[in-house]
Design brief:
The structure is a homodimer. Chain A is α/β, with parallel strands linked by helices. The first copy, chain A, has helices at 14-25, 42-59, 73-85, 99-108, 221-226, 236-251, 254-275, 303-311, 337-353, and strands at 3-4, 65-70, 91-96, 113-119, 141-144, 146-147, 152-153, 164-167, 184-188, 199-204, 279-281, 292-297, 315-316, 327-330. Helix content of chain A is 35%, strand content 17%.
Chain lengths: 355, 355
């Protein structure tokens, strides 16, 4: 049995994988695979409509927002956001809370001025910058809710006089958020929503059409809204598996229920990191992520042996990102708490053997 | 048994569907699904490398070209091509052979001047325009090799003094082409290469970096080449299934062998259309597509009954596109000739009953 702590594309529920495999062979008993039906078929339209409905339900998306399933990952959103929301000659405000935030702001520079209003670069992104003033004359404020590489997470969103755009790629559907506080939310599917290959965008309609730019159709949110996420052929299978994952989430009790589980998983793991003399946390405790738990060994000589020790117990994907080192256990929605117990036990056994 | 004549996302080989379903449950026996492994894992890198290698082998891609698996479909290429290849103040030449060519040239207008050097709009795109001069001062000539909606296909590519960019979405891997004759080839996967969700791009390296534009990373071919199609998380599953489909193609004898089969399928079907007094072809015979066979009933009252008659025999997806009407039988690589025989037989039986 494998315990998949990979940072993404990450673990999906076993039940969803079984349903997805069945759909590849024969979708809902129609005698054709989900991979070979038209995106204009009633079958796929049903899938897309249900996926949109589940997003709205599970996140409590209010009226006046559109829900899109696009392609190209969050990295495409790094460019689409300023393309659509940043007027010529305008500026946007970015909080640089990690590598992904940095990539986002670099892409925005292709479209206008970028004001980095806060950064955590001075301490290698081990904390969430909180001490900043949001400039009222910027087109939007860009935030990253969870920093996958360093394991920090915004526990509270700052108040803002301008629309807030948030990259929630690695913690969407893991906890309650108030969508009405945001102008635009985007998230690559491959952590908590489904497989790689589709990107969720939730956008407040009234923000669009104001930047006065000429935007090619595929990069234009309004064209994508008008096409109902089918301006062109959508990534059928990735949307299908996302829909199945959202169904699974709903059946589990939704975001509220999963948030409790996620908090418990994080609590158990951080408690062991803080207690175990061989290990230590990386980030400022108050900013620790409930999705990506980063930790180090006190003695660098223990790093490789512990990785091996863990792998022998079926623990996969805990090697830290190449730019952060150490370990990173990603504990996304689909990871059962039993896998966390297995990791904690491995840490305890390893400590026992290396006293 | 279903006979899938759908125009796309279209039929995939049964063998590929079985392998894909198995990979969703457990990829190559590693105990994890292809949907939940890192794109940086050796397992996925093996998949991507093999996919690129198979593209090069099957199409005979010469040195000096890069092969990319991107997202966003051909529609994203409609914008990326001029973004990368059309200099500020420059112009591009387009042949308007159908609706998709028209969409491509409209997107190019966001980036510069577009000269439509030939169009078949006067006869509702039922022929391939051939009588044109390619302007030597344009940055590139854009062609569409196969027009899915109307069922026409370029049987010979025109000589060009400037680089040729070709949308081969609906006939790539169906016949031999000389890649060296092209500056850039692109194709959405969902006809002959795999499922919806990835787009193949083959680009001559020396054409890049000349347009002197500042291009956001995700839309920049050079950034995608530098990242080896992994500038960001790629559409893992769509690439996996494309790789499996290319393996299947190779095992069948490659493009040369499939081309013979495709020609035979087309011959059998067009012969029946021309012979059967109830049906007639749509396009100029010399420009008929070997991928999308469009036909009409002589008596419009036969249209709905024939559709029903065919559906009762398991024949799926032959309703014509809403902008063309009539029937369209797509006979992509994975469609067995036995399905064509079933359709021909249905046409004959229907004619017999409606004499």
């Amino acid at each position: 049995m494998k315990h998949n702590f990979g940072a993404g594309p990450g673990i999906l529920p076993q039940e969803v994988l079984k349903q997805a495999a069945a759909g590849v062979l024969d979708f809902n008993g129609i005698g054709l695979s989900i991979l070979e039906i038209s995106h204009r078929s009633p079958e796929f339209e049903g899938v897309l409509n249900e996926a949109v409905k589940l997003v709205k339900e599970e996140l409590g998306v209010p009226e006046g927002y559109s829900v899109l399933f696009l392609q190209g990952g969050a990295s495409t959103q790094f460019a689409m956001v300023p393309y659509n929301l940043l007027p010529e000659g305008g500026k946007a405000a970015y909080v640089e809370s990690g590598v992904w935030a940095n990539k986002a702001l670099k892409e925005a520079k292709y479209f206008g001025d970028v004001e980095v209003i806060a950064t955590a670069k001075d301490k290698n992104f081990t904390y969430i910058p909180k001490d900043f003033t949001v400039p009222a004359d910027a087109a939007y404020l860009h935030l990253t809710s969870n920093n996958t590489i360093y394991g920090t997470q915004l526990q509270e969103f700052p108040a803002s006089p301008i629309p807030v755009v948030c990259d929630m790629s690695s913690d969407i559907f893991s906890r309650k958020v108030n969508v009405a506080d945001f102008g635009l939310i985007y998230a690559g599917a491959q952590k908590n929503m489904g497989p790689a290959g589709t990107t969720l965008v939730i956008v407040k309609d009234e923000l669009l059409g104001k930047a006065d730019r000429k935007i090619p159709s595929m990069f234009n949110y309004q064209a994508q809204i008008d096409g109902g996420s089918m301006y062109n052929t959508p990534p059928v299978f990735a949307i299908y598996v996302s829909m199945l994952t959202l169904r699974w989430l709903k059946a589990k009790g939704g975001v509220e229920a999963i948030q409790k589980e996620n908090e418990e998983k994080a609590r158990v793991l951080y408690e062991e990191i803080d207690r175990n003399p061989l290990f230590k946390g990386v980030c400022v405790p108050e900013d620790r992520s409930h999705m990506n738990v980063c930790f180090l060994v006190e003695n660098p000589e223990h790093e490789k042996p512990f990785l091996k020790f863990a792998e022998e117990r079926g623990i996969e994907g805990i090697k830290g990102h190449r730019s952060a080192g150490g370990f990173r256990a990603s504990i996304y929605n689909a990871l059962p708490i039993t896998s966390v117990y297995v990791l904690v036990e491995a840490m305890q056994e390893f400590a026992e053997k290396n006293k």
